[in-house]
Design goal:
The protein is mostly beta strands and about 300 residues long. About 10% of the residues lie in helices and about 30% in strands.
Length: about 300
């Protein structure tokens, strides 16, 4: 009886190993069988026509299903880079590149773990950041966001050049800031604006090293358009830039942006204007939202973000 049990275990091991090898699961991405109740069984057909084929769903990123003997069998994937605080990437770009050869774990937009190092103090910090893995080639790390009229009153901690850390792990309305952005060793930066998590425009440029020190760090150097759904002709194809809209209170510089005059930081308004203590609504006034994104074209939800890569 013991002998037969050992033979049975060996046969199961060989069968499982064959299935994994046939689907290119490498030793760096090993799997183990998990209970079928641990994840939802795929609705796709599993029969002789797709024997040994894998099925991956982004809604269950740690599980791959393999069609075996006309039944879906789940396998638990080991964490990929960026999945956990114990296995972080150095940036969203690093994580994107590590996922590019993994057919079971394609990189998608969302939160990932990164570990950055201060080059002067050599102090490391592990944090979770939102990664844009699709816009302009992907691999962008979110380091600042602001939702304007939804997060009043303003504070100086909200500046994108402030030394305040506030987790940037999602795009929900609010504000966040990662201090000492230089730790990402970035070569590029991107300004993107969203309406209720829907990307409206995004422009990239060379990394501006002033971003950790003063408001001028929010100026895109040699800007290029990634996407622009604005409908107001003077603003279409025009990159965003810091602006206080000719206000006497220049403290808005470092939070407010316009999208019409990128080299004039005292004119036009696309976020808010007036004063730091009493900002006045002007969201989307330069851009003007298209109707397929919002029935209300101006003065509605807006979140502007800064990414580095």
């Amino acid at each position: 009886m013991i002998f037969l049990f050992i033979i049975l275990i060996q046969l199961l091991t060989v069968s499982t190993t064959t299935a994994l090898k046939s689907n290119h699961l490498t030793t760096s991405n090993r799997t183990q069988v998990v209970h079928k109740r641990a994840a939802t069984v795929p609705s796709a057909t599993c029969d002789g026509s797709n024997e040994d084929e894998p099925f991956y769903s982004p809604t269950a990123p740690n599980t791959v299903w393999i069609c075996k003997s006309s039944r879906w069998t789940p396998f638990k994937l080991e964490p990929s880079i960026g999945d956990t605080a114990d296995f972080p990437g150095s940036s969203c770009k690093d994580i994107l590149e590590s996922h590019s050869s993994n057919c079971f774990r394609p990189a998608t937009d969302g939160p990932y773990w990164v570990r950055v190092t201060d080059q002067c103090s050599e102090v490391e910090q592990t944090m979770q950041v939102h990664c844009d893995m699709s816009t302009c080639g992907g691999g962008w790390s979110l380091v600042w966001k602001h939702s304007y009229m939804e997060v009043l009153p303003l504070t100086q901690q909200m500046y994108y050049f402030s030394d305040t850390f506030r987790s940037c792990q999602d795009l929900t309305a609010g504000w966040c800031n990662v201090d000492r952005k230089v730790r990402f060793n970035a070569e590029e930066m991107m300004i993107a604006a969203y309406h209720n998590n829907h990307l409206v425009y995004a422009y990239r440029g060379r990394y501006n090293h002033n971003i950790d020190h003063e408001w001028s760090g929010g100026i895109l150097l040699d800007p290029e358009m990634c996407v622009d759904h604005c409908t107001h002709s003077p603003s279409i194809g025009v990159p965003p830039a810091p602006s206080d809209h000719a206000a006497s209170d220049i403290r808005l510089l470092g939070i407010a942006f316009d999208k019409r005059s990128p080299s004039d930081y005292r004119t036009n308004c696309d976020t808010f204007y007036n004063s730091f203590d009493n900002p006045i609504e002007c969201r989307w006034h330069n851009c003007v939202l298209p109707t397929d994104i919002s029935s209300q074209k101006q003065s509605t939800q807006m979140t502007v973000t800064l990414y580095v890569r």
